[in-house]
TrEMBL record:
Pfam families: DUF1272 (PF06906). It comes from the Bacteria. This is DUF1272 domain-containing protein.
């Protein structure tokens, strides 16, 4: 079951479980659509895998299986955009 991590690992933007702007790789590294496209060019910086849109968990299922509250943030990712 997907963790549905709460934020972008690159810019730390909130990505609630119902967000259609969340992108993930096969290891569930999570990024906002803007960082995935503009900074990472569709490739996960952690594993080199493809970033795809994260599915939205239906509300009834989310109540039984809540999203993760653990944030992962890598400020070095955001530095790529500046550089």
């Amino acid at each position: 079951m997907l963790e549905l991590r709460p934020g972008c690992e690159c810019c730390d933007r909130d990505l609630p479980p119902d967000s259609r702007d969340a992108m993930i790789c096969t290891f569930e590294c999570t990024f906002c659509a803007a960082c995935a496209a503009e900074v990472l060019h569709g490739v996960c910086p952690n594993c080199g895998g493809e970033l795809v849109r994260r599915p939205v968990r239906p509300p009834a299922a989310l109540a039984r299986h809540p999203a993760s509250t653990t944030r992962v943030f890598n400020p070095d990712c955001a530095a790529r955009k500046a550089g």
